[in-house]
Amino acid sequence: MSLEVSPFGGSLPIVEPELENTSPLWIEEKEVSSAIVATVTPPQPASPEQGSRNFWKVFGTTFITIFLAELGDKTQVATLLMSAEFHAPWIVFTGAAAALITTSLLGVLVGRWLSTFLAPKTLDTAAGITLALISAWLLWDVIKG
Questions:
Q1: pLDDT in the model for residue 49
Q2: Considering just the CA atoms, what is the radius of gyration of the chain in Å?
Q3: Which of 17, 31, 93, 121 has the fewest CB atoms found within 10 Å of its own CB?
Q4: How far is the C-alpha of 141 from the C-alpha of 129, rounded, in Å?
Q5: How high is the pLDDT of residue 1?
Q6: 10 Cβ partners below 8 Å, 6+ apart?
Q7: Nearest to 98 by CA among 71, 75, 114
């Protein structure tokens, strides 16, 4: 903690934020005369080096997760078949890439919107239940014939 000279006389204790704190807002308390004033300030911006590491961590995790999930799935097989059928691989690639970008954009926008109302754990639980229901529905469809 450091002290800062107040324009009203006396000194103000300055609470130094911890760098490891990841809370969205910092609350600093400053004592002015006998009153305590609480101010809310936005989190300190990450250093450029830390921001670069976070970017590559998030980008790499997203790329590897989606890349591995998409390998051999129905979308890739459909793209393979359309490329073989139409003999226009670059047009098929462009259409498939645009479709994947669009669906990814929708996922990001809906996820961001939902995160304003629901906690991440609730979203995880809801996604797990949804995938379990889809799996049960597909299994039932296979058993039923």
A1: 77
A2: 26
A3: 121
A4: 18
A5: 46
A6: 32, 33
A7: 75
DSSP for the chain?
-EEEE-TTSSEEEEPPPPTT---S-EEEEEEETTEEEEEEEPPPPPPHHHHHHHHHHHHHHHHHHHHHHHTTSHHHHHHHHHHHHHS-HHHHHHHHHHHHHHHHHHHHHHHHHHHTTS-HHHHHHHHHHHHHHHHHHHHHHHHH-
Structure tokens at 120: 């991440």
- Measured in residues, the chain has a length of 145
Contact 114, 127 (CB under 8 A): no
Q: Is the pLDDT of residue 142 over 80?
A: yes
Average predicted confidence (pLDDT) for the chain? 78
**112 to each of 42, 65, 103, 116, 120, how far by Cα in Å?**
20, 18, 14, 7, 11
Tokens of 7: 């324009």
Cα gap 111→47, rounded to integer Å: 27
Please give the residue that has the higher pLDDT: either 22 or 93.
93
